[in-house]
Amino acid sequence: MRTKTYMPGFKNSQKMRIILRKNDVSIGMYLTVKDIVFNFATTSAAEAAYEALYYLAQMRRLEKSAGGLVPTGFGRKCGQFDVQLDLV
């Protein structure tokens, strides 16, 4: 039986680097898409990471359909955190 794709546009095993910054404290991690969806201790960090992942998926989908350069990462404010997300 096939495992559900947690974020359309990415494989569940796609590796990513995520950096969360809040109040001059930064935490960087290497995670898979599945880890980003399920493995955060706090709700606010999980929401920021999921929002960033969703935003990157949408950016990639729109650029691919427009025939432009497909982005591999970005940085933006998501909730309480400044988030940087990159494909590895």
Provide a concise account of the structure shown.
The chain has 88 residues and is of the alpha+beta class.
Description of the structure:
- The protein is an alpha+beta fold and 88 residues long.
- It has two helices and four strands.
- A hairpin with a 2-residue loop joins strand 3 (73-78) and strand 4 (81-87).
- The mean pLDDT is 90.
Question: How are the secondary structure elements laid out?
Answer:
Blueprint: E1 15-22, E2 25-32, H1 33-38, H2 43-66, E3 73-78, E4 81-87
Antiparallel strand pairs: 1-2, 1-4, 3-4
User: Helix-strand pattern, N to C?
Assistant: EEHHEE
Spatial separation of the terminal alpha carbons: 28 Å
Query: How many domains in all?
Result: 1
Instruction: Please give the radius of gyration in angstroms.
Output: 13 Å
Strand content: 25-35%
Query: What low-confidence regions span 5 or more consecutive residues with pLDDT below 50?
Result: none
- Overall pLDDT: 90
Q: In which range does the helix fraction lie?
A: 25-40%
- Describe the sheet with the most strands: 4 strands, antiparallel
Helical run tally: 2
Shape: globular
Number of strands: 4
Keywords:
globular; alpha+beta
